[in-house]
Amino acid sequence: IMQNSPIDLICPRCLRGFPRSDVLYAHFRNKKKDPIHQRLNQRKTNFRNFLTYYNLALGELIRPEELPIDYHCFEWQYVLEHHRAESQR
């Protein structure tokens, strides 16, 4: 299903899909009341903070050297492969 979908990226916090990175980053900026969403927007400005909250959103520990570059860490295949369900946390 996903291979035939226009969704390329997924928010690791809420698992909502997006067709482009600019729309995904707008989603992060619009979620002002959720600190995890806000920190997911900080990859270029505060990588350490970003990585802490990215791991929290995934429910799994990803080391910096394992993280795909740029927005590729939000590609649906990567997020779904590494995302742990709430019931497993």
Radius of gyration over alpha carbons? 12 Å
Biggest β-sheet, characterized? 2 strands, antiparallel
Order of helices and strands: EEHHHH
Number of domains: 1
Q: Ends: how far apart?
A: 27 Å
Flag low-confidence runs. none
Estimated share of beta-strand residues: under 5%
Helix content: 25-40%
Q: Whole-number average pLDDT?
A: 90
Strand order of the largest sheet: 1-2
Helix and strand content put the structural class at: mainly alpha
Number of strands: 2
Shape descriptor reads globular
The number of helical elements comes to 4
List keywords for this structure.
mainly alpha, 89 residues, 4 helices, two-stranded antiparallel ribbon, single chain
Structure description:
This protein has one domain (2-81). The mean pLDDT is 90. The longest helix has 12 residues, at 47-58. A two-stranded antiparallel sheet has the order 1-2. With 89 residues, it is mainly α. The protein has helices spanning 21-30, 35-40, 47-58, 76-82; strands at 9-10, 17-18. The chain is globular, with a radius of gyration of 12 Å. The chain is built from four helices and two strands.
Provide a short characterization of the protein structure.
With 89 residues, the protein is mainly alpha-helical.
